[in-house]
Design goal:
With 92 residues, this protein is mostly helical. The protein is 71% helix and 0% strand. It contains five helices and no strands. The protein is globular.
């Protein structure tokens, strides 16, 4: 699952230079979010969930053009995207 998520990050990174935030959010939901939901349903809480959350933070930073480092909480709220740990607690 991690290679698929890395590919989604790369796709959003490529699109970042030529599209707006709405297109980036659509591609996020098409590539990244769908893979996360599939992984949660099939794999449950696995050891890769930390890596998944790290990749999700990376893709959110790419989408808004933020630098790595500080907390992404406000970025998730700005984009109205649920972080991976939060998706485990909400029913599908």
């Amino acid at each position: 699952m991690i290679p698929k998520l890395i590919g989604a990050c790369y796709a959003v990174w490529l699109m970042d230079h030529v599209s707006n935030i709405n297109t980036l959010k659509s591609s996020y939901y098409a590539y990244f979010h769908s893979a996360i939901k599939y992984g949660i349903i099939i794999l449950g809480d696995s050891s890769n969930s930390g890596n998944t959350f790290t990749l999700q933070k990376k893709i959110v930073r790419i989408m808004v053009g933020a630098q790595p480092g500080p907390s992404c909480r406000s970025l998730f709220q700005q984009l109205e995207i649920l972080p991976v740990p939060r998706q485990y607690t909400i029913p599908i």
